[in-house]
Design brief:
Elements lengths: L9 E4 L4 E3 L9 E5 L2 H5 L1 H13 L12
Antiparallel strand pairs: 1-2, 1-3
Length: 67
């Protein structure tokens, strides 16, 4: 996620399946922001990897907590 307010931002539009800049589709239709165009292009893969990790993290998954 960008930390410099002057740095360019890159977003992945899930509606159009493409990387966009700041002035793209509404935020409800995209993931980001990302620091680089390459990171934005991997947005769906990154989301899937994070979901997989969270699915197996007992802090986020009550099914894996022991009584």
């Amino acid at each position: 996620m960008p930390t410099d307010p002057e740095a360019p931002e890159y977003w992945y539009c899930i509606k159009h399946s493409r990387v966009e800049g700041h002035d793209g589709c509404p935020n409800k239709d995209r993931l980001g922001p990302y620091d680089t165009e390459a990171e934005a292009s991997r947005a769906l893969e990154t989301a899937a990897e994070r979901t997989e990790a969270w699915d197996h993290d007992p802090r986020w998954n009550d099914d894996e907590l022991e009584d």
